[in-house]
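Course exercise 7: structure representation. Students receive a sequence record and must write out the corresponding structure in token form. The form below is the worked example handed out in class, using Acyltransferase (370 residues). Read each field label carefully; the graders check that inputs and outputs are placed in the correct fields and that the protein name is recorded exactly as given.

STUDENT ID: A-19
EXERCISE PROTEIN: Acyltransferase
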Amino acid sequence: MGHRNNFDTLRLFAACNVLLQHAAFLQVPWPRPIPLLVAYTSGVPIFFIISGFLITGTFLRSDGDVVTFLRNRCLRIYPALWLNLAIVLALLVAFGALPLGALLNPDFLRYWTVILATGSDALANWLLPPYPFAWNDALPFLPVVALWTIALELGFYLIVPVIFLPPVLRYRWASVAVVLALTIYSHRLTSVTATDEVTRGINPLFYFWVFGIGSLFSLLWSRIDRLFRDKFILWALLYAEAIAFFGDQHGIVYDHPTLRSTVLTILLACCVMSAAFSWTNLSKLLAGTDLSYGIYLHHVPIVMLLHAFGWQGFPAAVLLIVATTIAAAATWRVIERPALRFKIRPARRPSNSAEDGRADGLESPACRAG
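STUDENT ANSWER:
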């Protein structure tokens, strides 16, 4: 039985989706079908769905070893994140938003420490007084706007060991019941709670329901995989029919879910899981290279750099794509891949998640970003 899958390809697709969304800041006049495609294949829910599937399987295969699990997660997240934040810091100084002498200011150090820990300026602004950067036309805001999901992802990493306590880990039905209950609670919380967008953006419970869908797929995969494996076209057609029937121009509104957006998110998850296990030879094209995290990290600073020099429209979009791809490839080769060599690999063991025969596949070089 093969261990190949397309998770790296799907993450690359999701990262490019996020890039296209933020390219709007460069006034790129995309043809009409592209914004609609971007709206209904939104990168953030795809990332969360894949993360739910892979992180659940990874934790269960670690036999509940929380220290090893969190150590490996930190090795995946922080090295490339800190490189990106060093680049952002250089931009702040270069374009006059932060005086060089302010780098040792205690207020700035406290503020930047929160961002180093979470990637989230929203969380830094929530915990501390907002730092008075000298914004200007070249650099009108902090170029970390895409990193808000990192704080949520870190929150998911902390939630997973809490919900998969040893008594729960012993039984598949208990694991499914706990994840399902928290997924329903998260969906209800997100649907009915009246709160500001900042609070939503820093609280992982508001988005766990999307992560939870992926987690449920992981827990049930050995029983349901035949419904999805090599059936991507069928699921894509069903998703397209649902969009045609009750979709609109707003796409998937996963942060304020309605019945419509919930159904569409579930169908998107079905498409993602089917795509991951259809035409798996596609995974060979990437040759174990994962550019998705680098694209996700670096595209906004490059957007700001292009904006600072007055680049707009399609020429700016081409430069954005090329420069971001080069930066992502360099980051993977120099930072990410070397850091992953320090991960502790759990011993092979039976799992109540994905099939035993696929355990190595979910932690292979093509998937270890999960």
